[in-house]
Write a structure and sequence with these properties.
Blueprint lengths: L2 H16 L3 E2 L7 E2 L5 H11 L5 H16 L11 H18 L34 H11 L1
Antiparallel strand pairs: 1-2
Length: 144
């Protein structure tokens, strides 16, 4: 077994033990379910201004998504970029899976008229530049 296979196997085993469900699309970016994205659920709860139970997570997350849809990049706090990026990737992955895993829009395209998701491959919010934030937010708004 190669080192990378052993590492992948160890990560898979840890996910199973912790009970974390992760979709792994073809680009290798793990996409965690929104109910298991602690940072997203905490941010959604703080936006709504109350502690939530599991039943309310979905409505609070939807309120956070509405907040992002109605915001400009200038007013998105840096602490929201991680959850925003992960939600962007999660929504693209869902769209991809709904299309039977054959959504050509996942790949950056130079073809006119084709939507390209230029930030889907980003593994960590630290890879974003400040001038990427308006573009990321614009793409996010197109997804919803």
């Amino acid at each position: 077994m190669h080192e990378s296979e052993a590492e992948e196997s160890a990560v898979s085993e840890l996910r199973k033990r912790l009970g974390i469900s992760v979709s792994l699309p073809s680009n290798g970016v793990p996409v965690v379910d929104e109910l298991e994205d602690r940072e997203l659920t905490e941010l959604a709860s703080s936006l709504v201004g109350e502690r939530d139970t599991t039943c309310e997570h979905i409505s609070h997350i939807q309120a956070l998504r509405d907040h992002w849809r109605n915001s400009t990049a200038r007013f998105i706090p840096l602490k929201e970029l991680g959850p925003l990026l992960r939600d962007y990737q999660r929504q693209i992955t869902r769209r991809h899976l709904e299309n039977g895993g054959s959504d050509p829009e996942l790949v950056e395209s130079g073809s006119p008229g084709k939507v390209a998701y230029g930030f889907y491959h980003i593994r960590n919010v630290n890879q974003l530049r400040m001038d990427d934030i308006p573009k990321l937010l614009a793409e996010y708004k197109q997804l919803n």
